From TrEMBL:
It comes from Rhizoclosmatium globosum. GO terms for molecular function: FMN binding; NADP binding; NADPH dehydrogenase activity. Its cofactor is FMN. Keywords: Flavoprotein, FMN, NADP, Oxidoreductase. InterPro entries: Aldolase_TIM, OxRdtase_FMN_N, YqjM-like. It comes from the Eukaryota. This is NADH:flavin oxidoreductase/NADH oxidase.
């Protein structure tokens, strides 16, 4: 059920209020040479600028359902001019959630609960995306809110967790504190492909424009790609061709049910940042296979299976940008760059230098939800503010 009365929301191109109010798109069009504020079209979806909000777990859900917090959290970025908002990692099955407080999309009731959020995001001229994933051997952990910001603490059944239903490619625990891992059989793997397909159909029912498949950060799909977590001897383990079989099968199956006119993204940990792990050279081949089955953009992240050999990497500005560039150039697929992108000029340079097609920001948006509108001003892009906030726009 829709949480609010069906109100017409005035948008910038409403004309006389009411004439076209609540219409499909507000125009926050930019008239500048800044590439950051130029549109990008993938399939039939046009992003009004190249700035996206990276998916961020909020650990604020019950039974996988979004609520008023998620509505407010996601909407704030759509109101303030982001071209794209990607909803946090959302489990395709109950046991695929990272914590008992993570979102899920495994029933029509879940899709119905997402719909008002999607409708509102789109009413602001922003593209609505959802990250669909399975937490694999990192599932059934406690929200960092309950552990003094420690990750990987086990959520027991008493905590609402499912420690006896944590799955992965091989019986290798993520950490001392996480659950024992049940090794998936070939039939199980097919059932998880089906779960992604089911969630993709539900995402379409909810009205999302883009799906991002979560293939990063040590969760189920990445755990098949990485030799650290995948030590199988069957057709899903060993060679790169075998390790990528399940992630590519998921992308292929999702593409088959996801409408042709809507883009499909895939977030990949391009490197495990550790000797013996997945390398960026291997990831180039993975991305070529993903492109072949209809993935339109690779969101280039890194790490998550093991601790990186050099943790200082994660503090460097734009620490994944070189991966986005390598994948874009060598796999011939569009990329998003993410990771310590905080400055307007930094983002603009990434695009201008051909290193990525989109930039995604996470923590900077938590610090400054006004980042898009402030960056427009810094780069001299003329961007209309939302009509409700127009009186706050600085006059130069
Ligand atoms: C609070 C928080 C929650 C996150 N949750 C997710 C998530 O749900 N899915 C995901 O792929 N990455 C997640 N990330 C990683 C971010 O999307 C992003 O890749 C990372 O923070 C680096 O970007 P940044 O330097 O702009 O923060 C999360 C990061 C933060 C800070």
């Amino acid at each position: 059920m829709h949480p609010f009365p069906k109100t017409k929301i005035p948008t910038y191109n409403s004309g006389r209020l009411g004439a076209n109010a609540g219409g499909p798109k507000t125009t926050l069009d930019a008239h500048s040479k800044a590439l950051l504020f130029s549109p990008l079209t993938l399939r039939s979806i046009t992003f009004k600028n190249r700035i996206g909000v990276s998916p961020m777990c909020q650990y604020s859900s019950t039974d996988g359902f979004p609520n008023a917090f998620h509505f407010s959290h996601i909407s704030q970025f759509a109101i303030r001019g982001a071209g794209l908002v990607i909803v946090e990692a959302t489990g395709v099955t109950p046991n695929g959630r990272i914590t008992p407080n993570c979102l899920g999309l495994y029933s029509q009731s879940h899709a119905d609960a997402f719909k008002p959020i999607v409708d509102f995001v789109k009413s602001q001229g922003c593209v609505a995306a959802i990250q669909l994933g399975h937490a694999g051997r990192k599932a059934s952990t406690l929200s960092p809110f309950f552990t003094d910001n420690q990750y990987n603490a086990l959520a027991t059944e008493a905590d609402g967790g499912w420690p006896n239903n944590v799955v992965g490619p091989s019986p290798i625990k993520q950490a001392e504190t996480t659950a024992d891992v049940i090794e998936l059989t070939g039939d199980d793997i097919q059932s998880y492909v089906d779960a992604f397909v089911n969630a993709a159909k539900l995402a379409d029912n909810a009205g999302f424009d883009v799906i991002e498949i979560h293939g990063a950060h040590g969760y189920l799909l990445h755990s098949f790609l990485s030799p650290f977590s995948n030590q199988r001897k069957d057709e899903y383990g060993g060679s790169l061709e075998n390790r990528m079989r399940f992630p590519v099968a998921v992308a292929k199956a999702v593409r088959q049910v996801w409408p042709d006119d809507k883009p499909l993204f895939f977030r990949l940990s391009v490197s495990d940042w550790a000797k013996g792990g997945l390398t960026s050279e291997e990831s180039v081949l993975v991305c070529r296979a993903l492109k072949e089955v209809g993935v339109d953009l690779i969101d280039c992240s890194s790490g998550g299976v093991v601790a990186p050999e050099d943790p200082s990497k994660f503090f460097e500005p734009g620490y994944n940008v070189a991966f986005a560039e390598q994948i874009r150039v060598e796999s011939g697929v569009a990329t998003a760059a993410v990771g310590n992108i905080t400055e307007a000029q930094q983002a603009e340079d990434i695009l201008k230098e051909g290193k990525a097609d989109l930039v995604l920001l996470a923590r900077e948006f938590l610090r400054n939800p006004q980042w898009v509108l402030e960056s427009a001003q810094k780069l001299g892009a003329e961007v209309e503010w939302p009509i409700q906030y127009r009186r706050g726009k600085p006059r130069i």
